[in-house]
Amino acid sequence: MTQEKIDRINALARKSKTPAGLTEAEQAERQALRQEYIAEMRASLAAQLDNTVIQEPDGTRHRLTRRKN
To answer: What is its main location (predicted)?
Structure first.
């Protein structure tokens, strides 16, 4: 996510706290930007966990596996 998009999310958050609030279009834009941000954060966390290795006390190492749930 670009810094401009993050700045726009923050600007919309600040504007929503003012008495004027957000228009319908701005609310939709804020929701879309939030969803994009959350999707990118989840992807980043998943990538980090995919590269995580557990080292057992006996020195063996293994990667994390996903739960079947």
So the answer is: cytoplasm
